[in-house]
Amino acid sequence: MASNWEEFYSSHPQPANLNKDEDLLRDFCARHLNGDTRVVLVTSGGTTVPLEHNTVRFVDNFSAGTRGSSSTEYFLDRGYAVVFMHRHLFTKYVKSLFMPRDVKKKYRQILGFRVKSLQPFSRHFSGQKFLNMLDLNETKDGTSITVTSENVPRIADVLRKYKSALECGKLLELSFTTVYEYLWLLRSACQILAPLAERCILYLAAAVSDFYIPPNEMSVHKIASTKPQTISLQLVPKILAPLVSLWVPNAFVVSFKLETNKDLLIDKAREALNKYKHKLVIANMLQNYRKKVTMVTQQNSYVIELTTEQSNAGEEIEMYIVKNVVDKHEEFIADRSGKS
Amino acid sequence: MASNWEEFYSSHPQPANLNKDEDLLRDFCARHLNGDTRVVLVTSGGTTVPLEHNTVRFVDNFSAGTRGSSSTEYFLDRGYAVVFMHRHLFTKYVKSLFMPRDVKKKYRQILGFRVKSLQPFSRHFSGQKFLNMLDLNETKDGTSITVTSENVPRIADVLRKYKSALECGKLLELSFTTVYEYLWLLRSACQILAPLAERCILYLAAAVSDFYIPPNEMSVHKIASTKPQTISLQLVPKILAPLVSLWVPNAFVVSFKLETNKDLLIDKAREALNKYKHKLVIANMLQNYRKKVTMVTQQNSYVIELTTEQSNAGEEIEMYIVKNVVDKHEEFIADRSGKS
C-alpha cells in the first residue's frame, strides 16, 4: 500500500549526499548533547514533486519560507541551538531522481543553483535592496564600499546576531528540494537528535507535498507539449505518525496546518492532534498567516494576532509564536523532570 | 478550441496591475524611441500554473533565471536598453486568480513575497554570501559596515554597472508569476515596443508552461490530501505565432528551446523556426545549458561552447551568446535599411 511510510522509504533510494548531512548533524548534536542547551529543528519552505526524471517541470507547494526563517532568528534570540532545514529552489544535485550514477555526476558538475527559500538573517536583504544599500567610494587612495549610514543600524543588528550564531556553533543549515529528499533528511535528523529527548523541539513549518508521482510512472524526458496531459498523484505517507511515536518519542513536536477555508481550520488541527498525539498544532489561513495564528493544544486553543500598531511598527508574528512555544517547552521539560 | 490564443486571452481576465506595468513600459519606450538606442525585451524565469484558486499548490517549470539575468547585464554592456521581465516566486498579488475584487485586495495587503528568480547584478550576491562579505566596525565614534577588502573589486564592478544602468534609465524590471500574468504582460510589452521596429530584440528566455488548468476546472480551496488525485492539463496556446506575425512583425525575435533528449534538440528548434518564421532559436540541453548552446537560424546552425579554461576563469556563456545575437541584430538592421 502506497501510503505506508516504510514502503515509501524502501522504494525511494537514499539521496546521494545524505551521509554528509548526517555527519554535520552528528557533530552539531555532539556539541550540544552535554550541557543544557535547548535545540530546535526548524523545517522551512515547500517541497517539489518532479514530473519527469530529467526534471523540467514539477508540482510545487506554496512557501517562501518566511515562517521558518524568521522563527529561526527568534529561537536563536532565546538561546536555542537551531538546525534550519530549508528548501533549495531546485534540486541541488538532481540526486534523488533515480538516474545512473554517471548522469547524476554530470548534472552535479553543471547545475549551479543559487536561489533558495528565505534563510535567517539574509532574508532581510533579498534582491536588489542589498545593492541599493551600498555606497561606492572611489578616491585616489583606492576604492571602498560602505553601507549607507541610514541602513547601518538595521544591518549591524542583523550582522551581529548572524556572526554570533555562527561563532557559537548554534546554527546548522541543511537543505532539500524534493519531497523525497525532505523525508529522508527529516528521518535522519530525528534519529540523530533523539538523544536530546525533551530538550529538543521539532518545529515542522515546511509545506510538504501531500502527493507524489511514483518513479515508475514518471516520464524520463521532458513531456512533449503536443497534447493535453493527465497527471496521477499518489498520497505521500503522513510522516508525523512514525516521527512522534517512534523517532523522537520524547521531544516536543509542533506541526503546522495551513488551510484556505476557515470553516475547516480548527477541526483539521484538532484531528491531527488526536491522530498523532503530539503537543501543538499552529493553525493558520493562507489569507492572513503573517498576522494571525491559532495555537491548538490537547487542552485548548487560543489565537495570537498582531495588532495594527504592531504590524505598522514592523513587528513579526513569529516573535510571539516562538515566545509562546518556548514557554510551552519550558513547562513540558518541567513536567517531565517532575519539578512542577 | 482551447489552443487558440484569442480565446485564451478572452477567458483569462487582465491581471489587476497590468495598467501600471503598461505605463512604465510606455515611459521607457518614449525615452528610447527618438534616438538610436537599441532595445531588448528579455523574459526570464519559469511560470506557474496554480492548481487551486486559493493557491497552495502549483505546477512549475524549471528555471532559476540565470540565462535571462546574466544576458541582461551583457546587453547593457553593449549599450542596449533592457526591459527585464522576470518571475516572482509567488504571485505578488494573487491578481490573476479570478477572485472577487475584495478578496484580491485582502491578499494584496497581506502577502509580502520577496523571493524571486535571479535578477541582473543582485544575482551575484544571493543568500548569505552577502552577509559574509561585510565587516562590522564598532568604535567609540560609532558603527560602520564595510565590504571586506578582498571582495571590493568584484562588488565595485557590479555596483558601478548597476548604478549606471539605473541612472541612464536603461533598465526596466517587470515581473510575473503565473503563465496567465506572463502572457498578458508579454502581449502588452510587444504592443508598446512595436514602434521601435527593427531596433528591438525579443529575447524570450523564460521557461513558459506548455500546460494549464482551465479556471472552471480548478479547485477553489486547497485540495484535501485524503485520496489520490488526477490533474488534467490543457495546452497553453503557442504565443510565438501571433507575436511574430502580428504584434512585433518588424522586430528581431529570438526564442529558446530546452530539451533533455539530444536526439530531438535540433529538429525541434528547426521545426519552431519553420513554423513561426522568426530569426533565431537558441537550443540547449538541460544537462549542459551553462556550457553549450546551438544557434539555429533559417540558414544554418552552429555551436557556442565554453572551453574548460573559460569555465574555470568564471566566464559565462551568456557573454558569447549576447555578442552573437548583437552581431546578428546589427546585420538584420543593416539589411532592413538596405545598407548591406
What does the model show?
2 copies of one chain form a homodimer. Chain A has a domain at 5-121 and 166-250: Rossmann fold, CATH 3.40.50.10300. Helices cover 38% and strands 23% of the residues of chain A. Chain A has 11 helices and 14 strands. In chain A, the strands form 4 sheets. In chain A, strands 7-4-1-8-11-12-13-14 form an 8-stranded mixed β-sheet, sandwiched between helices. The radius of gyration of chain A is 21 Å and the shape is globular. Chain A starts with a helix and ends with a helix. Residues 91-115 of chain A have low confidence and may be disordered.
Helix content class of chain A: 25-40%
Question: How far is it from the N-terminal to the C-terminal residue of chain A, by CA?
Answer: 44 Å
Low-confidence stretches of chain A: 91-115
Mean of the pLDDT scores of chain A?
86
The CATH architecture name of the domain at 5-121 and 166-250 in chain A reads 3-Layer(aba) Sandwich
Count of DSSP helices of chain A? 11
Q: Give me the count of strands of chain A.
A: 14
Q: Give the overall shape of chain A.
A: globular
InterPro entries (chains A, B): CoaB-like_sf, DNA/pantothenate-metab_flavo_C
Family (chains A, B): Belongs to the PPC synthetase family.
GO molecular function, one term (chains A, B): ligase activity
Pfam families (chains A, B): DFP (PF04127)
